[in-house]
Amino acid sequence: MGNTQENLQSAFAGESQANRKYLFFAEKAEKEGHPQIARLFRAVAEAETVHAYNHLEAMGGIGSTKDNLMAAISGEEYEFKEMYPEFTRQAASEKNMEARTSFEYAIGVEKIHHDLYQKALKDLEAGEQLKDEPYFICPVCGYTVAGEAPKHCPMCGAPGSQFKRVE
Ligand code: FE2
Ligand code: FE2
Ligand code: FE2
User: Which of 27, 106, 107, 139 has a CA between 20 and 30 Å from the CA of residue 156?
Assistant: First the structure.
């Protein structure tokens, strides 16, 4: 066991993963015709989100929006510059093509996230508001774009009509 700061980090990671996992499990339960089990997964997922929030708050992980943008920029940068390239090489050397594709999608998209956050930080520092517009997300690779969905995803080719709109 580490010190409390380390324990908060790992508890935050675990609760965050549980939240996501339960939401995916809920989708699967819906598809398999178990709506109440799906609801249970969604309910517990919501509770794990409360735990995740409390842990992150307790470790001082939520700052001002400027601080949060800086934290987000460095996280995305680490992912697309160091973590995913290394993971991709490893997956290729193990001939795990599904993992390789999954990592490659993430490399490209984290770079875009990094750039979107950087632009937001720049505008914030200049005292300007970002343009009021929705974002569109590719359901296959996570490609993220402001304004409107493209005809086809430039990263993976999925049709733009399937993009998820974020208000
Ligand atoms: Fe929990
Ligand atoms: Fe990202
Ligand atoms: Fe895509």
Answer: 27
Q: What residues sit around ligand 2, an ion, with C-beta below 5 angstroms?
A: 76, 110, 113
CB 85 within 8 A of CB 92: no
- 150 and 167 inside one domain: yes
Residue 58 burial (C-beta neighbours within 10 Å; 0-12, 13-18, 19+): middle
Judged by its nearest atom, the ligand closest to the C-alpha of residue 78 is 2
Is 126 within the bounds of a domain?
A: no
Distance 88 CA to ligand 1 centre (A): 31
- Report the predicted TM-score, pTM, of the whole model to 2 decimal places: 0.92
